[in-house]
Amino acid sequence: MREETEAGGIICGLGQRIETIGLNTFQLRTLSALRSCRTAELGGHIDACTECGAIRISYNSCRNRHCPKCQGRKREEWIQARRSELLPVPYFHLVFTLPEELNEACLRYPKEVYGILFKTAWETLRLFGKEKHVTAGMIAVLHTWGQNLSLHPHLHCIVPGGGIDKNGKWNNIRADGKFLFPVKALSKVFRAKYVARLRETDILPYESTKSLFTKAWVVYAKQPFAHPAHVVEYLGRYTHKVAIPNGRIIAYEKNKVKFTCKDYRHGGSKKEMELDDTEFIRRFALHILPSRFVRIRHYGILSSTSKKIIIPSVRQQLPEKETGYIDMRTIKPFNPNVCPCCKKTSMVTVDIIPRGPPHHLTTGKQPAITGI
Hints:
This protein is of the alpha+beta class. It contains 11 helices and 13 strands.
């Protein structure tokens, strides 16, 4: 049975009312996938233990990147892949945020507006690196939401604290290791580059873009991580996040959804918020990205074409130092052959559940268990 206090349960509870929210076809298809995730609607299989006779029914997942249930394994795979690419250098976390004046453009032209965000963030960092006579690198992850599910497009960037000079030698950008570049200078250059690229399109009239210079754009920077390994763990929190995880949804009753959120205007204090289910799903749908839009991108020395050559070279130049860091992360891959009851490797598949309500569950007849 579908849990109501999760995104899929709320979508299911909306029923035909979802047609009144004003969503496009792609958003409706995405929400339909989330509603069906790990239910009989997507089919599945039945496993049985040859030792103790325990039976386990497993339904298929939707594997949609917006689904709160389907990101755990993808996140762990991404983390493991990035660990092999770490450099023994300081890493910095920067956030580039678009002003709310561009929210309407984000809704109308998400692929173009978010694409320009990626391009100009990298162009800005590349320019500042060039002033230090190095080629820098960046891993960028797009988020479009705030804690209350409002539209808040911003780019989380992890940047090594240095780069490669024209001779292929590694140079640190900051000797003191505190901050990578001046935030105010980054903000001004980022704003100018973004507006310039925006004016190359037909998204906004030229006159409308002038108002974008009347306020400062937010670029946030943190001090470097204590150890390079912390970078992957930290970025892993962002790479496969969705607009709201199921764990933040407290209740769904009488067409009202109650969920927790942080109020960053008051020191990040935890609060509860309540929305109509239609408004909740409308806000959730704001963050469904266009089909095939890449939300995790690598640039410069960390790009797929460069890192295979540059990372080994930098590691030879900068042997890793002993820091006392102990990796406490132990990820055990899920083994579907292990019985959840007797813990023996004795689970075998005895039946396939087709899409839709399985016949033996609707008739009450149990499947014949073979091979035991």
